[in-house]
Amino acid sequence: MQVHPIHFLIPSLETTSIKSTSSLADGGATQTMAIQPSFRKLMQSTLSNVNELQLAAQEASRKFATGESENLHELMIMLEEAKLALDLTVEVRNKAIEAYQELTRMQV
């Protein structure tokens, strides 16, 4: 059983390169711009990963309870990974809510 570091919860933030042609200002040369994935897509994929971990842990628990699997060690690792992923997700949500509340309290 391979133990994954915590960064497995966040998909890689690789940038996608696109080429655009600029106007006559710089002679029509092509420029390469990097596009970051949107926050929404990042959150959707991360929540999807957390959900998959929860479902896998639930399935492993079911197999252990019915006697299909006797590997308690792997079950405990899967349960702990799912718990840590959920705890991390809850903390990120709490920080986002806290930041939003701070913004709403700002006077303009």
Task: Give the SSE layout.
Elements: E1 16-21, E2 30-35, H1 39-66, H2 72-105
Antiparallel strand pairs: 1-2
Helix pairs in contact: 1-2
Can you walk through the features of this model?
This protein is mostly helical and 108 residues long. The protein has a domain of 72 residues. It is built from two helices and two strands. A two-stranded antiparallel sheet has the order 1-2. A hairpin with an 8-residue loop joins strand 1 and strand 2. The radius of gyration is 22 Å and the shape is elongated. The termini are far apart.
Features:
single chain, 108 residues, mainly alpha, two-stranded antiparallel sheet
Output the structural class: mainly alpha
Spatial shape: elongated
Low-confidence spans: pLDDT under 50, at least 5 residues?
A: 13-20
Say what oligomer this is: single chain
Our count of helices gives 2
Helicity level: 55-70%
User: What is the percentage of strand-forming residues?
Assistant: 5-15%
Mean pLDDT, rounded to whole units? Answer: 81
| Cα-to-Cα separation, first versus last residue | 54 Å
